[in-house]
Amino acid sequence: MNQVKLPLLICAILAAVSIMGIGIAISEKSITGIIGAILAVVIVMGIGFKTKKKMRENGEL
């Protein structure tokens, strides 16, 4: 069985929470919330892909 990669799990959870934040901001009709949540998704996903690339280069994946 494969081991859980904790940094990737954390990034995935944060991305999911940020996506939920978009929905909440839309329901609240908050433009700043929508923009903030979209930025959070982009940043978290970028960090996740960057981390995955580093782990792949180091042979950890």
Tell me what the structure shows.
The chain is an all-alpha fold. It has helices at 6-28, 31-57. α1 runs antiparallel to α2.
Summarize, please:
With 61 residues, the protein is an all-alpha fold.
Portion of residues in beta strands equals under 5%
Given helix and strand content, the structural type is mainly alpha
Question: Major β-sheet, in short?
Answer: none
Rg, Å, rounded:
14 Å
The low-pLDDT segments are none
Give a count of the beta strands, DSSP E runs of length 2 or more.
Answer: 0
Q: Provide the residue-averaged pLDDT.
A: 94
**Morphology call:** elongated
Q: Count up the helices.
A: 2
Order of helices and strands: HH
Distance between the termini: 13 Å
Determine the fraction of residues in helical runs and give it as a percent range. over 70%
Protein topology:
Layout: H1 6-28, H2 31-57
Helix pairs in contact: 1-2
Labels describing this entry:
61 residues, mainly alpha
